[in-house]
Amino acid sequence: MNSIVSIENVSHSFGRQQALINVSLEIPKGQVFALLGENGAGKTTLIRVLTGLIRPDSGSATVLGLSCLRDGQAIRQRTGYVSDSPSMYEWMTADEIGWFTSAFYDDQFANRYSEALMGFEVPPNVKLKHLSKGQRAKVALALATAHDPELLILDEPTSGLDPMVRRQFLESMVDRAALGRSVLLSSHQINEVERVADWVGILHQGRLKLVQPLQALRDNTLVITATLEHGDATVVPPRGDVLSESRNGRQMRWVVREAADDWRSDYGEQSGVLSADARPASLEEVFVAVCETRPDSAWQSEAATQPTTGPLASA
Ligand SMILES: Nc1ncnc2c1ncn2[C@@H]1O[C@H](COP(=O)(O)OP(=O)(O)OP(=O)(O)O)[C@@H](O)[C@H]1O
C-alpha cells in the first residue's frame, strides 16, 4: 500500500491510564481516513503522536516517510493540523494572523489563505476574539490548508459547529482528497463520517479494533437476526467475523463481518431456528458492535467484548 502514515506497535500511557495499546496502522495516500472512537478512546493521543507532540512509550510512526520521533518540525511544515481546541493569537484579526503565519511558508500561502477566508465568508478585519466559534474554526482550517499540505489532520473538526459550517468543512475535505491530498480526521459524528470517509478505523479503549475501506465495510457487514423455536434454545453464531451477539427472548442478533456466503445453511430444520434474516449494517451499528462493552437493557450482549480484529488492525 502507498501509505502517507505508518504506525507500528505504538503504545502510550499517561500515568496508569493506557491511552494507546499496541496500535499499528497504515493510512493510504489520497484518501479521507476517519478515526472513530468514543470519548477517551485515544484519538487525540494518536494524532499528537503523529504530529510529534507526544513521544510514545514504545513503537514508531512515520508521516510522509518522516519519523514522528525525530522529524516533528518537518512533519508540521508539510502537514496541516487543526486541533480540537485551536489556540490562536486572539488579539490579531483574521487577516493579520494569515500575514503572520505566511512568514513560515511559501509565497502562495497568503493568496490561498485569503481565498479560503473569502470562500468561508469570514470578515478579515475583525479580531479573532470577536469572531464566533464557527468563524474561528474556519480561520483555523484556512490557516491549516493555505500551504496546500500533503496531509491535513483534523481533530473533531465539526464539533460545536452549525450544520451549514459542518457541511462546508466536510465538502472541503472531499475536495482535498479529489486533488490527491490526504485527510485524517477524528470524530464521533458517525453520520458525517459516513458521508465523506473513504476509510474508517475504530479505536476503542486505546486499541485499534477495525480498519477498512468504508465501502467494503458496508458491503461485507450484515446484521443477521434469527428467531428461535423457544427462549432457552441455543444456536451457533453465523460463520464469519462476529462483532457482536445479543439476545432478546427468542430473537438472536449478530453483527457479522464477512459472513460466509452460505450462512443460512446452518439454520435449517434441525437447528432450533424458525427463521433467519439479514440486512446490511450501518456504520453506526458496526461502531456500536465494536465498542459495546455493557449489555443494554433489552438486548443481552453476549459476545460484544470478544476481540474483533480486522485484516489491517493489529491491536
Ligand atoms: N495529558 C493527559 N494527562 C492524563 N491523561 C490523559 C492526557 N491526555 C489524555 N489522557 C487520557 O488518555 C485517554 C485517551 O485520551 P484522548 O484525549 O486521546 O481520547 P479521545 O479519543 O481524543 O477522546 P475525546 O473524543 O473525548 O476527545 C483518556 O483516558 C484520557 O483521560
TrEMBL record:
This is ABC transporter ATP-binding protein. Pfam families: ABC_tran. Residues 5-230 form the ABC transporter domain. Gene3D superfamilies: P-loop containing nucleotide triphosphate hydrolases (3.40.50.300). Keywords: ATP-binding, Nucleotide-binding. GO terms for molecular function: ATP binding; ATP hydrolysis activity.
